Amino acid sequence: MELSRRELLSTSALLLVRPTAALSDSSAKMAEPRAPGPIVLCWNENPYGPSPAARSAISGALPDACRYPDDDIERLIAALAQHEGLSSEHIAVGSGSGELLRALGLIIGRESGELIAADPTYAELPRYARQMGAELKPVRVDAHLRHDLAAMHAAVSARTRAIYLCNPNNPTSTAIPAQAIASFVDSLPTQVTTIIDEAYMDFVDDADVHSAAALVASGKRVVILRTFSKIHGMAGVRCGYALADPQMAGQLAETCMALPNVFAMRAARASLVDRAFLADCRRRILASRTRLTAELSRLGCRYAQPQGNFVFFDTGAPVAQFAQFMRGHNILVGREFPGYPNWCRITIGTEREVEAFVRGLRAYRARSPA
Known about the structure:
Blueprint: H1 5-17, E1 39-40, H2 52-61, H3 70-84, E2 91-94, H4 97-110, E3 114-119, H5 124-131, E4 135-140, H6 149-154, E5 160-166, H7 178-187, E6 193-197, H8 213-217, E7 222-227, E8 240-243, H9 246-255, H10 262-272, H11 275-299, E9 310-314, H12 319-327, E10 331-332, E11 343-347, H13 351-366
Parallel strand pairs: 1-10, 3-4, 3-5, 5-6, 6-7
Antiparallel strand pairs: 2-8, 7-8, 9-11
């Protein structure tokens, strides 16, 4: 029997809210990977999934699925404003931060503006802005695979309307210190908006790296993007938000073409306050990240200093070859990124998934040359 895409999505939603004894506590009890499919380490997802509180909120929202979620939008914005210490006028919500990135791309594109972005970086905003008529000016990351802020500043022209900083950056997992971002923003011409994508900020352990949200509160020309897809484990539920001055936040809200549904909004509100789960999730992912980088060091593999829930490392051979080898071990790893044919982005999975990857990596490094 074949299922349509809509039927598959409906089935997935029912599976997501199915209650289980293992997730009934509000403490951070983690789900294990599903069997018998492959171990998925290629999408920067949080394998532990939504918190128990978020799952309960999704399940509890089912009777209200027939109602429009206008009140839920207002409640979510109020909760986010309280969480961020800003007014509701500074918040815009979207169906994932990807929806907000596209809205920004549309705004830049319809002004025929210029967008400066790192190369490589997360491609959704650069790609969509270019499709909408913007000119993209990529700036290569530095020798440590970090944003080259000096080169990005030098690339600014009279046509530049925005600069995109993914911090920590995807795919390199490197991060920019907060003070460096503040100084960079202060040095830019007044027509330039700095878009700071903080999807992975919850995984940072560098004391010099933290959110740039204070720049919004101080009236700087910045937009901060956040998502519930990473530490909150809700990539399939789709909810994100932006912090910006009220005028930009209103423009984003008007430009977005979709809003989170009632399940996403209630799950997001519940997840914000399920701090025990979020803290344990972070602890496990950081411990597994350290486990992986220690193994990479032991094997002599170069890697960028990671601050996200993924590691970017040199496999020593074409990444397509490495990916094929790992598929033979039932593990899916990241694709090739232009300019880095030997480098692989690997997501931090559960403890068992990371151990399985380490075994596969050891086998790959120990193989006889073809």
